[in-house]
Amino acid sequence: LNKDNTVSVTTEEQTTLSPTQVESIEAIGEWEFLAISNEELVDTVRRGFFGDDQLVRIYYGTLRLGINMKDVKEGWIQANAEKDSIVCTLPPIRLLDNNFIDEARTRSFFEEGKWTGADRQALYDRAYAQMKKRCLTPANIRIAQRNARQQFRDMFKAMGFPNARVEFERSEERRVG
Fold this sequence. Notes:
Elements: H1 19-26, E1 30-46, E2 53-68, E3 77-79, E4 85-90, E5 94-95, E6 107-112, H2 117-135, H3 138-158, E7 163-168
Parallel strand pairs: 4-7
Antiparallel strand pairs: 1-2, 2-5, 2-6, 3-4
């Protein structure tokens, strides 16, 4: 209100990105863009003189692909001179948790003979490798990137940036994980 009791409203033509907003985005930590549930049936046979021993186990796991905001590089987010668009460069999509096998759900499907903890660990290791090979594919990484782009565009649009471009750093490794 001013002296003649009128109200005026002005609009800010330029949207700015505050350091507090950038810090709050970075504070998110790990950001999951694709979760892949998988199960692997793994078996082994030990040939013996009096008969064969066989062990078949089913392993369940959920592989989560995403980014860790602690991995962003300095200047990862830039607003252009007109302040109506933004460009952000995210770290490469990676496996967020290497302990993705749910051991509580692992079941022996068939077990005949005597098996040691080392034998079971060898099966676990095979299931782990098979799950990573099956799930960490270029196609799944592209899906996670597409989901990330959409989520970041939506977030920036809500913050007043209608034009957002989301890019990813090149990974030094050819595989994720």
